[in-house]
Structure formats: C-alpha cells, structure tokens
C-alpha cells in the first residue's frame, strides 16, 4: 500500500521521539512492501516562531490531504506567557477540531515487564491493568467560550462547558462498540450530581445502553473514578468520559501503568484519517538530550497502522518488537529500574528496529 503521512514533530522532545517512530515506520514499509511518504507540517511553538501562529492554514491543509497524521508533542516554557489563543496548545486543539476527531482512545495497559515501575502496590498491580479511556475530544469546556473581563474592580474569568446530545451519542457509540471487541464493560464517568452537561451525558448513555444489551454498563462519578483507578483499576474495561475529565483521568491511568512515556493515543472522527500521538507532553526539561522515551510515539505509529491503514499484522509486529526490547531489560530514564540497562532515545529506537 501507498500512504502519505503528515508528520508534526512539534516542540521539546517531539522531534527526537518522532524521528525514532519514522525509522520504525520505514522498517515496517520495507518488511511488508509498503510505501510511506512523509509531509512535514509545523504546529505548536515552532509554528508560532516560524509563521506567527500555532496552526497556519497551509500546515492544516497538509494534514487534511494526508492519509493520517503523526504528532510528537507541542508546547514549552518559551510560549507560556502567550495569551490563551496564541499558545502552542491552541494549534493542537484547532487541529483536532478541524479534522473532526471527536474520539480519543487512550489505552492504559500494564506491560508485565514494567510492573515494578507502577506506583501501585504489587497486589493491586497483580490483578491486571488493561483498560481504555475513550475521551470526547472536540467538545465541552475546551471548546466553549473563554473570556476574562473586569467586573467590580477585579478580573473575572469564564469558561463555558456545553454538550449537545449528538456529541454525546457519537462518542458513546464508540465506547460501546469498543467494549464489544473487548471484555464487554463500559463505565461512563460524569459529575451528574452537580453538572447539567453530566446529567444530559448520563441520559444519552442510558439510552444507548439499551441498544447494547450484551454490554455491562455502569455510571461512576468522576471523583470516585479518580479513587477507583488508584484502588482497583482491574475493574475497568472501557471508560468513556467528556473532554476535560478524560484529560485528567487518562494521565492518572497512564501513571499507574509505570510510565506516561509508554502510552500512545489515537484520535478519530468519521473517516479513517486519524491523528496519532503519545499522550505525554513535550518534556522541555530533557529536550534535545536524547533521553526521552520514544515508545509512546512508536506505539502511536502502530495504532496508525492498525486503525487508519488496516495493517493489523504490521501493528502487532511493532508491539511485539517493543515487548522484546523490554524483555531485554532496556529502559529509558522515565522507566528505569534496578537490574535494567539505561538507554538513550535513539538507542531504544535502534533496539526496536533490530527486534523488528
Ligand atoms: C492532552 C494534552 C492536551 C489536552 C493539551 C496539550 C492541550 O494534555 O492531549 O491530553 O489537554 O488535550
Ligand atoms: Mg492531557
């Protein structure tokens, strides 16, 4: 197959980790007889520096006309002082929205080799961690009105959170369909004891649950969910939630699996074109030092192979290569443990290529 991929290296460690993922993609292409071509696109801080805005129209166009998009990470202290609508993160939000990517899928799965790196007690970890956070990605408070004004001699800030039924229904369907291919359990997370958006969320989810009788459905309040993820993560299969709750809970979920550096994500909408990225940020403190963990991005590339290109075998080969390298005891700093060998970002890439 021939595929064109828009590549957004981004800021901080973005360029280093994307480089390793592209090496893996090239190796997959060679091994399985595909042709992958890459179109470099600027987004985030680099785009602000070069073009004066986080997501220039021409860069967005490259993403819209490619078969899929691979992203490293965006943001950094250099742009922290910018007003909200001029920040690197704004580029990412605009990209998700313009591409219509309402469904963000973040697997929280414990690699057995990394069990010791989990901050949870061994007896909790032993019960297994393997769930997916299905996060609504282009609605809610992220995309409501944001404003700061003077009122009665002080500043007042407002962020509007709203959801329409169709936005809830389409993400709910993704969750039920995903659960159907897994352990058939959906936990919908909301704050229905306080928020109207959550009460509507719950109503729509209950309606959908009727359509999927084979799926075991339950609701959970978000504060309780934060506790349950730490207390007994084995109870979760598919977790579905709104944008901001999903942002927060997916970081918590990644941490209990040992390292946020390991977790990829896919963002999809109606077609097969998706945006694939690790869930971690741009880690400016270690940028340019060849220390970052490239595995989250490499696994994001594997998700692209699977979900956008229907290349299941290729995706599994990449995952198996990652697993083999972990078996060999190779670790980047974020997941280093006693008795293991500390490797750099590019050495981790070398090892995965060799295993592939
Ligand atoms: C994420 C990130 C983004 C988000 C930021 C960078 C805007 O934290 O992908 O989880 O909040 O969605
Ligand atoms: Mg986040």
Provide a descriptive summary of the structure in words.
The protein is an alpha/beta fold and 356 residues long. The chain is built from twelve helices and 14 strands. A hairpin with a 2-residue loop joins β6 and β7. α6 crosses α7, α8 runs parallel beside α9 and α11 crosses α12. The two termini are 19 Å apart. The site of 3-isopropylmalic acid has 6 residues, from α4. Homodimer.
Bound molecules: 3-isopropylmalic acid, magnesium ion
How helix-rich are the residues, as a percent range? 40-55%
Mean pLDDT: 96
Strand content: 15-25%
What is the number of strand segments? Answer: 14
Order of strands across the main sheet: 2-1-3-12-11-4-5-10-8-9
Main beta sheet: 10 strands, mixed
- Would you identify the regions where 5 or more consecutive residues have pLDDT less than 50? none
Succession of helices and strands: EHEHHEHEHEEEHEHEHEHEEHHEEH
User: Number of helical segments?
Assistant: 12
Chart the SSEs and their pairings.
Elements: E1 2-10, H1 14-32, E2 35-40, H2 45-51, H3 57-64, E3 68-73, H4 88-98, E4 103-109, H5 122-125, E5 130-136, E6 146-151, E7 154-159, H6 165-180, E8 185-190, H7 196-211, E9 216-221, H8 222-231, E10 238-241, H9 243-256, E11 264-268, E12 274-278, H10 295-308, H11 312-327, E13 330-331, E14 341-342, H12 345-355
Parallel strand pairs: 1-2, 1-3, 3-12, 5-10, 8-9, 8-10, 13-14
Antiparallel strand pairs: 4-5, 4-11, 6-7, 11-12
Helix pairs in contact: 1-10, 1-12, 6-7, 8-9, 10-11, 11-12
3-isopropylmalic acid is lined by residues 75, 89, 92-93, 247, 279.
């Amino acid at each position: 197959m021939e595929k064109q991929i828009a590549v957004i290296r981004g800021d901080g460690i973005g360029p280093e980790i994307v480089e390793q993922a592209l090496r893996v993609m090239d190796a997959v292409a060679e091994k399985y007889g595909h042709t992958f071509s890459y179109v470099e696109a600027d987004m985030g801080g680099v785009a602000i520096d070069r073009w004066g805005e986080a997501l220039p129209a021409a860069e967005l166009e490259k993403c819209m006309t490619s078969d899929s998009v691979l992203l490293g990470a965006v943001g950094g202290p250099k742009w922290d002082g910018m007003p909200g609508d001029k920040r690197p993160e704004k580029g990412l939000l605009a990209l998700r929205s313009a591409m219509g990517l309402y469904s963000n899928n973040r697997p929280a799965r414990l690699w057995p080799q990394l069990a010791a790196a989990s901050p949870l007690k061994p007896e909790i970890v032993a019960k297994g961690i393997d769930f997916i956070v299905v996060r609504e990605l282009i609605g809610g408070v992220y995309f409501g009105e944001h404003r700061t004004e003077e009122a009665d001699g002080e500043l007042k800030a407002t962020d509007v959170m709203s959801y329409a039924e169709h936005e809830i229904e389409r993400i709910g369907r993704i969750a039920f369909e995903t659960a159907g291919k897994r352990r058939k359990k959906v936990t919908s997370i909301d704050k229905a004891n306080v928020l109207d958006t959550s009460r509507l969320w719950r109503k729509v989810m209950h309606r959908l649950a009727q359509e999927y009788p084979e799926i075991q459905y339950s609701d959970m309040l978000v504060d309780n969910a934060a506790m349950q993820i730490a207390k007994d993560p084995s109870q979760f299969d598919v977790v579905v939630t709104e944008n901001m709750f999903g942002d927060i809970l997916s970081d918590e979920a990644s941490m209990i699996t040992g390292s946020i550096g390991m977790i990829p994500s896919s963002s999809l909408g109606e077609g097969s074109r998706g945006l694939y990225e690790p869930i971690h940020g741009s880690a400016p403190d270690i940028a340019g030092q060849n220390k970052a963990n490239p595995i989250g991005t490499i696994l994001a590339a594997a998700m692209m192979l699977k979900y956008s290109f229907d290349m299941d075998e290729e995706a599994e080969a990449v995952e198996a290569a990652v697993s083999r390298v972990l078996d060999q005891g190779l670790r980047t700093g974020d997941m280093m443990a006693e008795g293991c060998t500390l490797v750099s970002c590019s050495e981790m890439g070398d090892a995965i290529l060799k295993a592939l």
